[in-house]
Amino acid sequence: MENIMNEPALKYNNILPYEYLAVERGALEKHEYYQGEVFAMSGASLQHNVIFSNLFTDIGNKLKGKGCRPYGSDLRIHIPKNTLYTYPDISIICGEPHLTDNEFDTATNPTVIIELLSKLTRNYNKGEKFTLYRDIDSLNEYILVDTEKIYAEKHVRNADGSWQLTDYRSLEQSFTIDSIQLNILLKDIYEGVSYA
């Protein structure tokens, strides 16, 4: 994982998953875990928080009564196939969450993951992290929303397991999260955010 991290910064190494969880559940900061290493996660800008709030609220309102629910970055996602424990900005789970234990804080079955991009996280989220996310059998869509410019990209898993990318660069555009039949307008995502 050496190629992905200047950020999040390496915190510990050579620990087992149960050791990570024991410490993480009492920690004040969030950390990712991957193959024995623990990485501190970065904080978020005001723009990140505005965009998150816009998107999370929009998705939550549109999903009421539809059997799917959005979760924020306090829900940890675990990928057993590659050991990653992480905190996506938004996870959408359809049906009941598959939880790893009776602590009820770690799920394994997101249908959609949405990550917000910043200068520090852009390369990781578009590269190695997406590679790791593709090991989630339930994941059908991966959506990236930039916090530093008007830009979103949607990756959809095809029937053959390949992924198809479509990007969006204008406030007049919208996209549909196909798995949950939900339309998102870029102007709603970026409401209250201005770029010079």
Distance between the termini: 35 Å
CATH class term: Alpha Beta
Q: Which stretches of 5+ consecutive residues score pLDDT under 50?
A: 1-8
Number of helices: 5
Name of the CATH architecture:
Alpha-Beta Complex
Largest sheet: 6 strands, mixed
Q: What percentage of amino acids are in beta strands?
A: 25-35%
Global geometry: globular
Could you name the CATH homologous superfamily? tt1808, chain A
Q: C-alpha Rg, in Å?
A: 16 Å
User: What is the third-level CATH name, the topology?
Assistant: tt1808, chain A
Rounded mean pLDDT score: 91
In total, how many beta strands?
14
Structural class: alpha+beta
Helix content: 10-25%
Lateral strand order in the biggest sheet: 4-7-9-10-11-12
Q: How would you summarize this macromolecular structure in one to three sentences?
A:
The chain is α+β, with helices and mostly antiparallel strands and 196 residues long. 21% of the residues lie in helices and 31% in strands.
